[in-house]
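Is magnesium ion placement plausible here? Inputs below.
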Amino acid sequence: MKRIINEMKLRLRAIGENEAVARACISAFIAELDPTVEELCDLRCAISEAVTNSIVHGYKGYSQNIPTFIYISARIYDNREVTVEIADTGCGIEDIDRARTPSFTTGDPGQRCGMGFLVMESFTDSMSVKSKLGRGTTVLLRKNLKPYAEEKTCHKG
Ligand SMILES: Nc1ncnc2c1ncn2[C@@H]1O[C@H](COP(=O)(O)OP(=O)(O)O)[C@@H](O)[C@H]1O
Ligand SMILES: [Mg+2]
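Reply from A.M.:
I modeled the complex. Tokens:
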């Protein structure tokens, strides 16, 4: 059975600046696994989409005067699986299947293209969404990192 070998939790204000902070924190957290550039880019990209969604859609129309937050929890398992959960306590999603349909967006069509969930799905091994109207949304991303590259040995000839 797989075992958790490291965990972290983050609470960030739901502001655009923190998209980069979330990416950087997760990158640092998984650095011990020595991920490939591709694995790192995939995860960073999926995290960006989830965090942006919470800021742009989850808290859309919320008063700027009352701070809103994004909650991120990440875990590393001993089989090199990484999970990242991104949650908000915003407006929630009425119809998750419809929201996950490529090209569906409730955002400004000039700015949003409705591909965020597809990106999260494509760049991870699995992605699940839970949401309750008026309560918020949680996205769970899972990625299995490849086994460590074999140690390079030096052959003296
Ligand atoms: N955290 C969230 N809170 C509320 N609604 C969301 C959230 N994430 C996604 N959605 C809904 O799902 C739709 C599709 O999301 P996505 O695929 O990322 O496309 P886009 O962000 O371009 O609209 C959004 O337009 C929005 O209606
Ligand atoms: Mg999006």
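Short version: Residues 49, 52-53, 116 surround magnesium ion (ligand 2) (CB under 6 Å).
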